[in-house]
Amino acid sequence: MKIKPLADRVLIEPAEAEQKTASGIIIPDTAKEKPQRGKVVAVGKGTKDYEMTVKVGDNVLYGKYSGTEINIDGTAYMIMKESDIYAII
C-alpha cells in the first residue's frame, strides 16, 4: 500500500454489504445499508499527545457517517480519525 495516513488517521477497507437477511431474503442493491465494519489497511503514527491503539489487520466497527470515502486503484476505502472507531472486533 502506497498510502500512509498522517497523524491519528486510519485507512479502512469496508466489509461487503450483506447480500441476504438471516431468514434468506435477498437484499436488492438499492436497499443495502452502508457497512459499519471493516479491516484496517494503514495507520498513521499518531501525535505527540495521542498514541495509536489500532494496528494494520484489525477488524473494527465505526459510525455509519464516519470518515470520508475514497477510491484508490478501483478499490473503495474509508479514511477517518481513530476516535471515529468504536471498537476492535
Question: Which keywords apply here?
Answer:
about 90 residues, mainly beta, 10 Kd Chaperonin, Protein Cpn10, Chain O, six-stranded antiparallel sheet, 6 strands
Task: Please render the helix and strand layout as text.
Elements: E1 9-14, E2 37-43, E3 59-62, E4 68-72, E5 75-81, E6 85-88
Antiparallel strand pairs: 1-2, 1-5, 2-3, 3-6, 4-5
H/E series: EEEEEE
Give the strand tally: 6
Strand order of the largest sheet: 4-5-1-2-3-6
CATH class: Mainly Beta
CATH superfamily: GroES chaperonin
Number of domains: 1
Principal-axes geometry comes out as elongated
Low-confidence runs of at least 5 consecutive residues: none
Radius of gyration: 14 Å
The CATH topology comes to 10 Kd Chaperonin, Protein Cpn10, Chain O
Q: Cα distance, first to last residue?
A: 23 Å
Fold and architecture overview:
With 89 residues, the chain is mainly β. It has one domain: 10 Kd Chaperonin, Protein Cpn10, Chain O. The chain has strands at 9-14, 37-43, 59-62, 68-72, 75-81, 85-88. A six-stranded antiparallel sheet has the order 4-5-1-2-3-6, with no helix packed on it. Strand 4 (68-72) and strand 5 form a beta hairpin. The mean pLDDT is 87.
What is the structure about, briefly put?
This protein is an all-beta fold and 89 residues long.
